[in-house]
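Progress note, sequence design subtask.
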């Protein structure tokens, strides 16, 4: 099997925590995504829960902490939102890491 050198820098998601977020009584909540190949430049990463883009707080090569607001949570259509990370490596190379892990979002509809 041929191994592409870029595989080491492509994002891979191994875990998401918490797996359920309750947004009914809080304005924001943090979600931690662990894995590999995230890098350290927050401007190169886009994290989504379903179709909603979360706000990056901290990033290391193996962990991303994002914030989601109650307003954002209320727009998530699927209560079991898939998590994805897109990493810009170059203008034409933007691999997306997706996971079968989901976050259950319990949001008060606004």
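Output:
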């Amino acid at each position: 099997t041929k191994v592409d050198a870029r595989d080491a820098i492509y994002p891979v998601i191994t875990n998401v925590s918490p797996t359920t977020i309750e947004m009914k009584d809080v304005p924001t909540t943090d979600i931690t995504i662990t894995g590999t190949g995230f890098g350290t430049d927050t401007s190169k990463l886009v994290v989504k829960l379903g179709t909603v883009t979360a706000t990056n707080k901290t990033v290391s090569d193996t962990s991303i902490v994002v914030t989601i607001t109650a307003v954002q949570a209320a727009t998530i259509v699927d209560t079991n939102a898939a998590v994805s990370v897109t990493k810009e490596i170059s203008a034409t190379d933007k691999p997306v890491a997706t996971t079968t892990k989901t976050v259950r979002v319990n949001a008060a509809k606004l």
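The chain has one helix and nine strands. Work on this subtask will continue into the next period as scheduled.
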